[in-house]
Design brief:
The structure is a single chain. This protein is an alpha/beta fold and about 300 residues long. The chain is about 25% helix and about 15% strand. It is built from six helices and nine strands; from the N terminus they run E-E-H-E-E-H-E-E-H-E-H-E-H-E-H. The strands form two sheets. A seven-stranded mixed beta sheet has the order 3-5-6-4-7-8-9, with helices on both faces. Its cofactor is Mg(2+). GO terms for molecular function: GTP binding; metal ion binding.
Length: about 300
């Protein structure tokens, strides 16, 4: 049963959480081209009920046993299906399913900034929102995904992004850079304004496929990140945990990235009857880039071809 007509891969069962993945009725048959692509390789480039569209230190990839049995099954993969290690994206818990397709980024362009959710582009292209605590590496991740050094301008001053910024990828889908949260040096009124219009975007954006919630893996879990994840879940907004800075080990701040990720997973495990998708990344080494794009391709293809 759908709680509301919104693109999502996770839904809230009752306030407060737990959260779970929702079933989505079909809209139309997957195109032959997408079906043939299957779990295609992302090559060198390198969540979901939906509404009607028109209405540093380099670390080796983590061992696969970090995933254990807590796998995220994307659309098209039935619970209980046999999953082999080569079906799981390295450094993640994400299974590659039948909707995975061409994930190459051939071109990306900045479309514009919006001070209000209602000012965002009005077309029906699917989009992924990039969200996280200020200084978590949002702009760096966008630059790495698009391979454009200045697609999203990075800054040494956290909190620089104060608008909703749309980047059109391959003329077919959007990456959306949202203001960071939790920047202590910003004024209280500014933090409240950013929170207000960002939440308005989440609650009213019909073309939102899912949120990439960035978590800094170089430090222990932060309460503000857990609070943000809970808010998204309670509002039926699908999310993927994207662990950033997995190439860094900070002295005196506790733990290696894989250790911090494990603590984070243990902290949220009680909230999710079904595990949410997560992936390790580094904008410095390129870790997780292709895998994240492949994951996004299968969510996007499902939304574009099957979701109602």
């Amino acid at each position: 049963m759908l709680l509301r007509p919104r693109p999502s891969l996770l839904r809230a069962l009752a306030p407060p959480p737990p959260l779970t993945r929702a079933c989505v009725p079909a809209r139309r048959t997957l195109s032959a081209a997408a079906e043939a692509a299957g779990a295609a390789s992302v090559g060198d480039a390198a969540p979901a009920p939906a509404v009607p569209r028109k209405s540093s230190r380099k670390l080796a990839p983590p061992p696969r046993d970090i995933v254990k049995t807590a796998l995220f099954l994307p659309p098209g993969v039935e619970p209980g299906a046999a999953v082999t290690p080569d079906m799981v994206i390295p450094g993640s818990n994400i299974v590659v399913g039948p909707y995975a397709g061409d994930a190459r980024v051939k071109e990306a362009e900045f479309v514009g900034s919006s001070a209000r959710a209602r000012d965002c582009p009005k077309d029906d292209r699917p989009e992924f929102a990039v969200l996280g605590r200020s200084n978590v590496g949002k702009s760096s991740l966008i630059n790495a995904l698009t391979r454009r050094k200045e697609a999203a301008l990075t800054s040494k001053k956290p909190g620089k992004t104060q608008t909703i910024n749309h980047f059109l990828v391959n003329k077919s889908w959007y990456l959306v850079d949202l203001p960071g949260y939790g920047f202590a040096a910003a004024s209280q009124s500014a933090r409240m304004d950013w929170s207000s219009f960002t939440k308005g975007y989440f609650l009213n954006r019909d073309t939102l496929v899912g949120v990439l919630l960035l978590i800094d893996a170089s430090i222990p879990p932060q309460k503000i990140d857990l609070d943000c994840a809970n808010w998204l879940g309670r509002n039926n907004i699908g999310l993927t945990f994207v662990f950033t800075k997995c190439d860094k080990v900070k002295k005196g701040k506790g733990g290696r990235p894989d250790e911090n990720i494990k603590v984070f997973q243990d902290t949220i495990s009680g909230l999710y009857p079904e595990p949410p998708p997560w992936i390790m990344t580094s904008s410095v080494t390129g870790l997780g880039r292709d895998g994240l794009l492949l994951h996004m391709s299968q969510l996007r293809n499902y939304w574009d071809n099957e979701a109602v």
